[in-house]
Amino acid sequence: MTGNAGKTPPPRLVKCPACGRDVPWLPQSRYRPFCSERCRNTDLGAWASGAYRIPQSGPSEDGEEWESKREG
Ligand SMILES: [Zn+2]
């Protein structure tokens, strides 16, 4: 038999905002409340793209060449 003297309570679990996994709220969970660095980056990327829309500058139309008038 093993005496459970001084058993530690289970860590608080938080849900990863990105994927919904249970993440233990511990100092070693450096990406909390995210479960991993990937989820953190994903969420940040989504937030940034949603909050700020980066206007995509299309190709500049600078190839218009007008022919000189023909004088007859
Ligand atoms: Zn996650």
Your description of this structure?
- The protein is of the alpha+beta class and 72 residues long.
- It has a domain at 13-51: Erythroid Transcription Factor GATA-1, Chain A.
- It is 21% helix and 8% strand.
- The chain has one helix and two strands, in the order ββα.
- Strands 1-2 form a two-stranded antiparallel sheet.
- The longest helix is centred in the middle third of the chain and has 15 residues, at 37-51.
- Zinc ion binds at residues 16, 18-19, 21, 34-36, 39.
Q: Estimate the global geometry from the Cα principal axes.
A: rod-shaped
**H and E string:** EEH
How are the strands of the biggest sheet laid out side by side? 1-2
Query: What is the name of the CATH superfamily of one domain?
Result: Erythroid Transcription Factor GATA-1, subunit A
> Treating each run of at least 4 consecutive H or I residues as one helix, how many helices?
1
CATH class of one domain: Alpha Beta
Distance between the termini: 112 Å
Share of residues in helices: 10-25%
For the biggest sheet, the summary is:
2 strands, antiparallel
